[in-house]
Amino acid sequence: MIRTYKFLMRPTVGQQQALSEMLRDHCSLYNGALQERRDAYRHASRTTVRYGEQSAQLKEIRAFDPERQGRWSFSSQQATLRRLDKAFAAFFRRVKSGEKPGYPRFRGVNRFDTVDFPKNGDGCRWDSTPHDPVTRVRFQGVGHVKVNQHRAVAGSVRTVSVKREGKRWYVVLTAEHSGPVPLPATGSAVGIDMGVVNFLADSDGGFVSNPCHGRKVAAKLEAAQQALARCKRRGNRRRKAVEVVARLHRKVRRQRLDHAHKTALGLVRAHDLIAHEDLRIRNMVKAPAPKPDPERAGVFLPNGAAAKAGLNRSIADAGWGVFLAILRAKAESAGREVVAVDPRNTSRRCPECGHSTAENRPTRENFCCVSCGHTAHADTVGAVNVLRAGLARRDARPG
Fold first, then answer.
1. What is the pTM of this model?
2. Are 99 and 19 in contact (CB under 8 A)?
3. HEC-encoded secondary structure of 307-341
4. What tens digit of pLDDT does each residue of 47-99 get?
């Protein structure tokens, strides 16, 4: 079982400069390899350059530029070249499937924020000073960097990555251990119904409120983006405006992650089985298709795009996809079971008599069965139906 850990690093001023230079040189290597592939294919021979050929050139590149490329780990440079190779593989896959291709692009030095080390001990060393109570990680060319290790790492560390987020530096570890440690069985099962007014409702009648982190900082973010738009020229003023916008986005992202982790942890600790709707979030946030006026050429009829845009912002602000991914990961670590069910008619079907129609839900919150008269909160009804579908799906599995 593979688990990922992310810890804040506390580098010195000199180490921060060395880390920045490492990102800069790996970015230069990435862009140079991309330029080589572009030039080779644009040649009349239509030559295709692959990872193996570019990796074989690393020895010469390091010898030619020992003060920059020669300072860093050979394996981390290979990982950067593999990163480019994966970008091209994804590009060709999208071309074959008829999707929007998106040719790999050159990276600016401020947009290249991660360096990977494929193996712990090769160019890097986690917990490099075990005799010291302060945890440190060592990187070739940087030294021993202090780490704020807020929890223990289970298993053996396989890969190490350096990540820059604004002015902060993080180390990201992947560790492999034997398997999950199951939590004690509770004998409880629950269904959850995701929403935008309430973040979720469960089949027991409980609700988790939607914190609306993005909406709370919308005014500040709008002002910061307007200030950034007024900075036409590159300079110190524009750099500060960019940092303000990025800091607000990072704060909202961390708040969403914190809320998702806490909510998922509560569900995993309390229930053995958790059923949720199998939501296609990408399809749910698509803009409505334009409606051309059949009587007037070049004129379009109202299609509800403004209202749909508001709903899309609310869905994105809730962070359903992030929450469900965290829920599945925590459930796997705790030996719990998560079941995704078909979301169709879950909020329209009466849990008492089974009658399903749109008239059963006259408003967003109210459910009133037109057949048997059963009344309840619409989200609670949806969660109950999700739980029943999840139990039925679990029981239908062979073995």
1. 0.86
2. no
3. HHHHHHHHHHHHCHHHHHHHHHHHHHHHCCEEEEE
4. 999 999 999 999 999 999 999 999 999 999 999 999 999 999 999 999 999 99
